[in-house]
Specification:
By secondary structure, the protein is mainly beta. The chain is 9% helix and 22% strand. The chain is globular, with a radius of gyration of 13 Å. The protein has one domain (11-87). The strands form two sheets. Strands 1-2-3 form a three-stranded antiparallel beta sheet, with no helix packed on it. The chain has a two-stranded antiparallel sheet with strand order 4-5. It has one helix at 80-87; strands at residues 6-7, 13-21, 30-33, 45-46, 54-55. Strand 4 and strand 5 (54-55) form a beta hairpin. The N and C termini lie far apart (42 Å).
């Protein structure tokens, strides 16, 4: 089974057949809503330590590992480790 098309727990269309733009504010990069663009590598948000944090957003290559806010403006903790590494 693939993630060609479906909806997430919030009813948002997801999958690699869903054309979209990056969720980073002001970015117009063309992406799809497949797992390759999903924050944390999986659909839906999660704060479960076993799953790893993710905000539920979909981001282009430039913003996938650098965003700090999800598509609804909530803080994203998926990149906290990267930010800590940069600060050291």
């Amino acid at each position: 089974m693939g993630w060609g098309y479906g909806t997430n727990s919030e009813g948002r269309e997801v999958g690699y057949t869903v054309e979209a733009t990056c969720d980073f504010p002001g970015c117009e990069a063309k992406i799809d809503r497949g797992l390759g663009y999903a924050c944390g590598g999986m659909h839906d948000r999660s704060d479960d330590p076993g799953d790893g944090p993710r905000c539920g957003g979909y981001f282009c290559a430039e913003h996938r590992y650098t965003h700090t806010r999800g598509p609804d403006g909530d803080a994203c903790r998926a990149n906290d480790d990267a930010e800590e590494d940069e600060a050291e």
